[in-house]
Amino acid sequence: MTRETTALAHSTAVRVSTDGRSQNGDRVLSAARTTADSTPVVRTGPTGITAATPLVMVTRSERTAFYSDPSPATVRDLIDELEAGTVPTADADAVVEHDPETASLPAPERGPLSVGRRNVLGPCGWVAPLSPADWSFVSTQRTADVAAGAGLLGRGRGDAAADEPVADTWETASETDGDPVVVCNANDASDLPTGDDTLLSGAPMAVLDGIAAVAEYVDAGDAVVYVNESQTDVQADLREAIDAAADTLPVVPQLVAGPDEFRAGEPTAALEALEGADRIEPRLQPPSPAKRGLYGRPTVVHTPRTFAQVQQAVADPGSVDADAADPGTRIVAVAGDVADSATVELRSSASLAAVRKAVEMDGSFKMACVGGVLGGVTRSLDMAPTAQSLRAAGLGTNGVVELFDTGRCTVETVGKRARFASMENSGRCVPGREGTKQLAELLRDIYDGSFENDKIRELSRVMRQSSNCQTGAHAPRPVTTAIDEFEPEFRAHTDGHCPSGTCTEKL
Questions:
Q1: Which residue ranges does the record annotate as region Disordered (predicted)?
Q2: Tens digits of residue pLDDT in 383-399
Q3: Both 291 and 231 in a single domain?
């Protein structure tokens, strides 16, 4: 069977959704391709649900059967049955009836894939990610006017307009003297999974299309996709996607790899890395990148999540509620003490607690850290996933929820994050350089019997208000929110007792 590079052109097809790092995924794909005689076999990108990887979807016209992590032998049997004229459903995890021309994965009614919406994530796992033939480009006909009018907010710590209207950034870049440039900041060195990775692997054309639409809006002739140098698989796929779409896109981005460092993902630090600076650190602001960015040019810096939201808004204006405080959807990666990580998409009216249905926890739920490694700690996820709700709760908006079970020690958990901040800050400003060290030391003092709550909170206030970089400003958040929720646990450690029983050696 020859390799198929398009999925949507066939009413009967076998899709193998894999993240490209699964050995079983490669075996399953190989088994499918060697078995199929007349049936197209297409490798699609990840769906976002790791537990279902590889996921085999057997489609004939209006029906698709889903099989999670099947053996190669099972796949061979499925294809034999399909080529005999029927969709194999006997042992399927789910069977879904759908429009035969759907370009979005038809989500089952139950299971992890049913959690939330699949608007921006819709193509992930369903289309051939590197094939322009599976994509209807909007940037060739329209700019991002609809997205600007909808009031979309930037998404992720790597976005220069994080939680702010992207249209304001675009207008500034358009009105500033100089030739604008658009940067897609996809460099995230955190060990936590991100929605950006899912989009770049599952729907890179959506991101490239969004970049081009924004570039057309601000009249930029140049664009850059900035990725982590350690993600060689992502680089290879993106390079293939860019080359494949080059004859279609009105603006073709350049692919550049940057340092595998947490600090290099901050928007202005990304610009420093792109300019080849020896020392990667955030720039002092103002001026914002929209006024003076890459090589002094007006620069729009967004994450892949933001560009994909822009593309979705332009392609389907009805999918974005312009009256909402946080229009569009929020993509959330779920990690922590779970059997497998997941990426889901939630409406602004949904509850963040829905993410728990996408994963299986190792133990009983105790707390969550919302917003990434420097997010906020909470006992409850009963809140909207919007920027406004999360900030009101003192949590982060970076699109990551870590679920922790009762075996986790709160003090140890936030102590590790404070130490992370003390090592990963840029060192440019005193609050970030020295404040993070002092914060880590104050937490270490707890094990020696000293819990100075007032001093921790005053240091945190100063760091939040005066740090130049995100690391210094956000480093106190895990600590202060954890104290708000679990102060008795902190005090217990001063008496030599760890309620979770995990800090015995330290005490």
A1: 1-26
A2: 999 999 999 999 999 99
A3: yes
